[in-house]
């Protein structure tokens, strides 16, 4: 196969086919594939914003950095999303990698939020 370093033509027809006869194509061209991906990305980012708001709220119920990190809960989330991946036919390695990155990012934000809070009983900044 030759390499031409040109981006694919979004409006061209198919250049390859899957060998699996059961494969049902979804789109007529790459532009249509990308419209669908872009529409999903809008929903995914909106959902990430909503998830982030709950992660922020979680900081109100924690005493220290270990509780912010909550490693047992992290593992529970990974196990749960891997089971969901299987149920929905998502690629498990993609789901796991995404969630490990997401959780790491959310924890970093939660740790920052935690430093900008005060103890409910003493009023001490933590
Ligand atoms: C939101 C929480 O805090 C952190 C963030 C998590 C997440 O993004 O799912 C999970 C555990 C914690 O590391 C929580 O403890 O539930």
From TrEMBL:
<dbReference type="GO" id="GO:0009697">
    <property type="term" value="P:salicylic acid biosynthetic process"/>
</dbReference>
<dbReference type="GO" id="GO:0046417">
    <property type="term" value="P:chorismate metabolic process"/>
</dbReference>
<dbReference type="Pfam" id="PF01817">
    <property type="entry name" value="CM_2"/>
</dbReference>
<dbReference type="GO" id="GO:0004106">
    <property type="term" value="F:chorismate mutase activity"/>
</dbReference>
<dbReference type="InterPro" id="IPR036263">
    <property type="entry name" value="Chorismate_II_sf"/>
</dbReference>
<feature type="domain" description="Chorismate mutase">
    <location>
        <begin position="24"/>
        <end position="114"/>
    </location>
</feature>
<keyword id="KW-0413">Isomerase</keyword>
<protein>
    <recommendedName>
        <fullName>chorismate mutase</fullName>
        <ecNumber>5.4.99.5</ecNumber>
    </recommendedName>
</protein>
<dbReference type="InterPro" id="IPR051331">
    <property type="entry name" value="Chorismate_mutase-related"/>
</dbReference>
<dbReference type="InterPro" id="IPR002701">
    <property type="entry name" value="CM_II_prokaryot"/>
</dbReference>
<dbReference type="InterPro" id="IPR036979">
    <property type="entry name" value="CM_dom_sf"/>
</dbReference>
